[in-house]
Amino acid sequence: MEYSEQVIDLFHRHIESCMYTMESLSDAIVQASQCIVESMLHEHKVICCGEGSSGLIAHHLATNLLTSFQHERPALPAMILSADAATAIAADSSYNDIYANQIRALGQAGDCLVLCYNGNGSTATLRAIQAAHERNMRVISLCNLNGGDASSLLSPEDVELAFPVEDRARVTEMQLIAIHSICELIDSQLFGSP
Prior knowledge:
single chain, 194 residues, alpha/beta, Rossmann fold, 5-stranded parallel β-sheet, 58% helix
């Protein structure tokens, strides 16, 4: 296969993944945006974290909320859990608590945790969900279809975006599109259409 054909094939797989995601998750994406808006309207914040490359997706969400997404607007209350703190927590106690310790320290009832990961979810992911629930926070989970043990920990009030694609790169792409959709919906709900 020629390299240009490989690129065309990649774009076709991306488009196909978008179609599957749009059909299966559009309502859940709306629900995730409403969960975040409800939290913000009650003067609470969004705490974001993620594993591996999905951590970049979580960071992107926090950045989009803290700055203007597509239009000029006030900063919205969001934070990304610190990688520096995670390193210290892992050195002092356990890698499994890198997010949970920060959530217990910074999270408050009514806050919303946005958690991005791929695969079954590590012990750190599981403990983050447990810590959020201990603090009476809702969880929005962005994962692939095999959310594993992390999916089983979610409560009925939580929102799970389990992307219906298997290719790891496509999952990351769909997480990014979902984050952009959530940001646009948040802006519409809080500030109206531009």
